[in-house]
Amino acid sequence: MSRWQGLQVKSEGTGISRPLSEQVNLLGELLGQAIRDAAGERVFELVEELRLLCKAAAAEESAAGRAKAQAIIAGLTHEEIVWLLRSYTAFFHLANQAERQEIARINRQRERRPEGRPESIDHAVAELKAAGRTLEEVLDLISSMDIQPTLTAHPTEARRRSILGKQRQIAGLLQRLVGDPSEDERNETLDELYAQISLLLLTDEVRTESPTVEDEVESGLYFLSGTIWETVPRIHRDLTNSLRRHFGHHTQAGPFVRYRSWIGSDRDGNPKVTADVTRTTLAMHRRVALERHLAELSELRRELGVSTRRASASAALMERVQQYGAETPLTEMEERRYQREPFRLLAAQISRRMEALLSEEDALEGQLSKRYGPADYEDDLALMDRALRECGVTAAAEHGRLPRARVLASTFGFHLAALDVRQHSRLHEVAVSEILKIAGVAESYAELSEEEKLEILAAELVNPRPLLPVGAELGGEAASVLETFHVIREALEQNDQSIGSYIVSMTHSVSDILEPMLLAKEAGLWSTGRGVPVDIVPLFETIDDLEAAGELMDRLFGDPIYRKQLEGRRGFQEIMLGYSDSNKDGGFWMASWALHKAQRRLARVCRAHDVDFRLFHGRGGTVGRGGGRANHAILAMPREVHTGRIRFTEQGEVISFRYALPEVARRHLEQIVHAMLVAALRAESGAEMEDDGATEVMDVIARSSMKEYRRLIDQPGLWEWYTRATPIEQISRLPIASRPVSRGTGSEVDFESLRAIPWVFAWTQARYIVPGWYGVGMGLRDALVAAEDNEALLASLQRDWSFLSALTGSAQRELARARLPVARHYADLADGDAESSDFHQQISDEFERAREGLLAITGNDELLDDDTVIRKSIALRNPYTDVLNLLQVELICRYRAADEDSRDPLRQALFLSINGIAAAMQSTG
Fold first, then answer.
1. What's the rounded Cα separation, in Å, for the pair 375 and 390?
2. 47, 276, 572, 876: least surrounded by Cβ within 10 Å?
3. Last residue of a domain, one of 599, 618, 637
4. Residue partners of 327: CB distance under 8 A and separation at least 6
5. 13 to each of 4, 178, 883, how far by Cα in Å?
6. Do 355 and 499 have their domain in common?
7. Which of 93, 154, 521, 825 is catalytic?
8. Is residue 154 annotated as part of the catalytic site, yes or no?
9. Set 285, 584, 617, 642: catalytic member
């Protein structure tokens, strides 16, 4: 008999693997026992009763079980509901950890196979060799590769750091159970696991207040200086090993994965990100980078005990030691200790220089920041490498701590991750208007035509005089915008790698790009000879802007002033594409297709102007915001855009999922590198599926799907119904981020001002998941009836075109995750009137059209027939998630019926229900 009298999950037979089934069953037993001990037998029995009722309802596709569960919930006390929410939320936290452990287990298992694991770096190198590529060609391809994941603080991580910490501890304990522990080791681990689960159950899920921007920066630094710091050298080692295996050559590639961050520097819609906050963020990044390098140097010093009694040190090494000894002398004791160990001596000297950089009080800091920088550090490590080889210790140069330190130095520098600055185009216009008015250049710049604006901007950019007289004062918004450019200048003066790009949100015109250049000039950042020393990046977000992006960039590249900026950037241009707002604007299919076509047009325009370029993909975590597996997205891109360079955002729960476990982080990055190498190979072949009617039929689907989507969201009453039928009111108050849910400045929120994240978040909570599929049904239906051969054409494209297969795969997953019988309970919240019923029925009808259309072109009998692992995981989770949904619906009813004085406990419980459903769905917005 089990020591733990808990939940009998009985996940075996559900189609998931035996190891995962055993872990889920074990965690269910431990959690159930913890519920008994903390909340009592009554709560435990309620957990079981509701779970079994919804499980039976899911199996029988009957509403009776859910109706009975709903009746039971209606009779519960508030305290009982809260305990049920805690219990089910804890179950999903545990199940999610078990699934991640399973991912790691499968990857380790596949790695042991003779053929290796699919979608790995080794597979990509093997494919390149099989295609006839020489070592030199492969090395050239790798040297041109530039992958830049970009961390953002978008509010999509609903869990507190306390909960994340408990989950990490539980993950470590689960890992200890893998293998063959002794009986005592197993029992000890189970006791520790039970203790952590008990603590998880009693830890507040919801923050008492929203995190500050500094809190968000700390969270980003946790991953950058932890799992990411450890994973990047591992990826380099994987590449080195693959090249040696397939080409018999040992080589250490230069940095091909670098990280960027928006956390602490993204101003778009977040007034809390001030100039001082960005200054603090830059200092925090610098401090953490230097501290991590110091830790690496400490390990290097321990390892490199090469003595001059046993090997001669190179003249170059000894010369460097003498130089540093004169400039930054060590203590007498250190000098004596390392007098015959030059490698340790140099490592200690480098450490002393970094320690001086860390100390703000040290008088040498200002000088050393100029005299010792990241390039000097890389040079010192390269000198050590050469010296080791000259000593005959090539193995240490290739396989010891030194190659790891060199990768870390070249990847993270002294800045850890370069900060991007983002601001809305409207605020640039506000600032420029005020400055030009004070300068007497234009009284009402904002009211001028585009041609008139460009004429003024061009004249002022070549005019060397500053526009603002000494002592002039700007208004609040304008002053804040201009101060940002002063921060950028200060940062670049200290470290030219610390700032990456300046991104202009909602770029609609050429003047939207020239305006920040004029502001940069006013802050001393622009000169006609070199332009602005950071990339000025347009961000295209709406369907109209995506359609016009190619034409706008053509005009921009033709502008004489902007050509000077391009020359200063060595003919390079970065362009960002927004996946969230385009989906909210035009629906899933239209946004996806508009983004695909925009990429092709932009690539052609860049090549026509002889501009080297990189696309920056502003992808969210959910399908409704461009989410999905990054490697599949890369392979689905048009061949024209594969330049070897790519950027993409990673935010909220995506960061936690990808970087919480080292094994998952490694798998994530190796799949991206694999996709980039394979995509480059395919791009060379020139194969592309967009011909023989493909573009025409995709246009038909896109136009029809957007029309149907806009028909839904533009209907009178939809917004009011949405606010009543989803928990958007509670989501808007959820304390999970520093940024407001709306771009608007007032207290009222409407469809236009609501950001895409809460828009998707609320639909997901209510189990409709409209942004991930709505409109697909009508689009496919119209395409299939437009021409008899369209079904065969789409079926062929589905098999052979990675873009379409990725698109339909995403739509299938979102349809499978939607749960309209449960969503019906949310529709009833909208007062149960006829209009409420109409909206729910409209969504249900489109759901059936989408399902039928996708099955027709994929040839499947059921959704996700070709991805049974996901399908079975959804089926296993549904009954438990259904309970959370019914609890949330009950709480919404009680909240609306209560007076304001008694709403706070209900509000807190609703926040907990939102966290629980987010954990169950493994997504927020």
1. 23
2. 276
3. 618
4. none
5. 22, 21, 22
6. no
7. 154
8. yes
9. 584
